[in-house]
Amino acid sequence: MTAVYDCSVESELLEGLRAARGAIGRGELVVMPTDTVYGLAADAFRPAAVQRLLEAKQAGRDVPPPVLIPGIPTLNALAESVPEPVDALVKQFWPGPLTLVVEARESLAWDLGETRGTVALRMPDNPHARHLLADTGPLAVSSANIAGMPAATTVADALAMLGDLVSVYLDGGALAGGELAAEGAPATSTIVDATSLYLPEGKLRILRAGVVPRDAIVDVVGAELVA
Predict the structure, then answer these.
(1) Does the pLDDT at position 169 exceed 70?
(2) CA-CA distance, 47 to 49, in Å (whole number)?
(3) For the residues of 124-169, what is the DSSP string, one character each?
(4) Can you name the residues that pair with 100 across neighbouring β-strands?
(5) Would the pLDDT of 25 be above 90?
(6) pLDDT for 186 beyond 90
(7) How far is CA 88 from CA 70, 147, 171, 217, in A?
(8) Are 86 and 93 in contact (CB under 8 A)?
(9) Residue 67: pLDDT band by 50, 70, 90 thresholds?
(10) pLDDT tens by residue, 207-226
(11) What DSSP designation does 72 have?
(12) What pTM does this model have?
């Protein structure tokens, strides 16, 4: 049964976080606010839950979901290594709208799809999201929408597309992504691929332009490291 909780009401927030934690623990789906758009979340370490997420979005395994994490220590636990430029970007932009693609530890027991041994990680700048992540651990989180449709910036948007495929909706109000989109600016996180940095002349590649502009990334790591 689907439930919607208003995070602006303390009693509903606490109840909603408990319900969301329980749903994740059962392998079900949750819609949660982030600092950009609403995310569709599942337990990253339950392959069946991740597959349920992909099916709800009508997406294939060739579009593996990013993983949201509660803090920088989790980056070190999930990434095979954290090169110095990645560490510098994390210190500058996390929590925030920057997603970093890194080599995943080979020992991780998960199946996010066709990742080719990589994982896209982000620490969101939203207190409700981080509270839930602190309780559940890493979550596979994709934008809360049907593939090809605009990302949801309100719970109503997400509910209209995903309906009862989701057990718990955490309503954090209208999110920043909606205002950015209305102004013609990117509304989602910037995605940077750091998996080539181990090569002698490896560089960072911006896979998706987003809230964090290229110039800001260059300011941190230098132009010579950005393809």
Answers:
(1) yes
(2) 5
(3) -S-HHHHHHHHHH--EEEEESS-TTSPPPSSHHHHHHHHGGG-SEE
(4) 121, 192
(5) yes
(6) no
(7) 18, 33, 33, 10
(8) no
(9) very high
(10) 999 999 999 999 999 999 99
(11) H
(12) 0.95
Task: Quote the pLDDT of residue 187.
Answer: 78
- Answer whether 187's CB lies under 8 Å from 178's CB: yes
- Residue spans of beta strands (DSSP E) within the chain: 3-6, 30-32, 39-43, 67-68, 98-103, 118-122, 139-143, 168-171, 190-193, 205-208
Could you tell me the two tokens for 16? 């909603």
Tokens of 43: 């337990």
Q: Write down the pLDDT at residue 178.
A: 67
Q: Are the beta carbons of 189 and 212 closer than 8 angstroms? A: yes
Q: What DSSP state is assigned to residue 79? A: B
Report which of 110, 104, 115 is spatially closest to residue 80, judged by C-alpha positions.
Answer: 104
Count of positions (residues) in the chain: 227
104-137 b/e (C-beta count within 10 Å ≥ 16 → b): beeebebbbbebeebbbbbbbbbebbbbbbeebe
CA 15 to each of CA 21, 135, 192, 223: distance values in angstroms, whole numbers, following the listed order: 10, 14, 36, 47
Token output for 37: 């758009």
What average pLDDT does range 108-135 have in this prediction? 96
Separation CA 40–CA 163 (nearest Å)? 12
